[in-house]
Structures are given as C-alpha cells and as structure tokens.
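Q: For a teaching session next week I want to show students how multiple molecules come together into a single three-dimensional assembly. I've collected the sequence lines for a complex. Could you give me the predicted structure tokens for the whole thing so I can convert them for display?
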Amino acid sequence: KQEVTQIPAALSVPEGENLVLNCSFTDSAIYNLQWFRQDPGKGLTSLLLIQSSQREQTSGRLNASLDKSSGRSTLYIAASQPGDSATYLCAVTGANNLFFGTGTRLTVIP
Amino acid sequence: DAGVIQSPRHEVTEMGQEVTLRCKPISGHNSLFWYRQTMMRGLELLIYFNNNVPIDDSGMPEDRFSAKMPNASFSTLKIQPSEPRDSAVYFCASSSSGGREAFFGQGTRLTVV
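A: Of course. Below is the structure for the complete assembly, covering every listed component.
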C-alpha cells in the first residue's frame, strides 16, 4: 500500500525566507503528485499538479519538483509571507485514490 | 464553475440519528471521492465512484455507512445510526478521471453528541 510521509510536521520561519517542504512516497507507480493547501476549518485548495512524466511545476512563488525514482517531491516557497501560513499536504495519485501525507503546518512570522 | 459543493457545512446530531451529507461535483467530472479527516488519522478515503459506479468502497468503516451516486451531478453519504466516533470533517472531491487533478469541496463538519 502506498505510504506518504511529509517532513517536517511543523515549520516556523520569519517573513521573507525561502523554504522547502518535503514529501516522500513508497510506491513510484503513480499517475501524478498534487500539492494542496489547507487553512484552518477550510477545504483543500490545489496548488500544483505534477504529472508522473514531469520533473517540476511552477506557479508564482511556488515550485514543486518530482523525482519518481527516489519517491520524493519538494515544494519550494520563495519569499514567504504571513498569508502563506497554512497546512500543506502532498498527495500521490493512483488509479482510484489520492494517498495523502499528514501535512506540514507552516507558520510565517511577520 | 462554482467548484465542488457540499452541504450542509456543519451538522450537529444526536447519537443514533441518521445523517446525510451531500455533494455536487464539478460539471463534467466523472470521478468522485468521499474522504474523512480527523486529527488522529488525517485524510482517509471512504469511497470512490467512477461514472456514477462505486469502484472502491474498502474504506467505508462499517455497515452504518453507505454512499450513492444516482447521477453525474449528485452524491450522498449516509450514516445510520450515527455515533460520537463518527465526528469528523467529511470532504467530497471530484476529478475529470482517475489519476487527474482533484478538486475538493469545503467539507461538512459533523458532530455527533
């Protein structure tokens, strides 16, 4: 069964710093990998989708990479802002499921 | 499109009562997922539909839970009878097909007292 791990579980950084969130998965037979953001009491917002054939995707200050062979993905956030504070979840997609990690809770301190 | 729409947003019910959660997927999407989120267990897949047909219901915790998708634009998740341990946030998600980008609703926060 696919297992997804996210490290660290929580991260606090001062505003303006660049940061990296990590995601690892055990089964490289994936369709794609998706990064989500979840604010407290809210739903999941899709940030980036990387197809299994791709190496990276960029959206604004966010850059996600994928190394399928090693079972790893990173989410890079440039010039962090207090509004980036949220829980970030990665999910790897099989045919019938999205397998989620437990998330990284990010706090950006003004 | 308004995105995935779930109702109600909040539900408080007494133990033993029937609870029905509703989901309207994004128009044109033919895959629909029901997830449950708790602090202890994170996000757990309950059931997956493709073209209105249940494909994988292995995550449904027990017979008290049932889900239907009578048409492409509507799905329900029913709990009967409800128990306090069912308290969680229930999310519905849809995608254009299995393995594609998934979009989540805002969730239904269920409290069973």
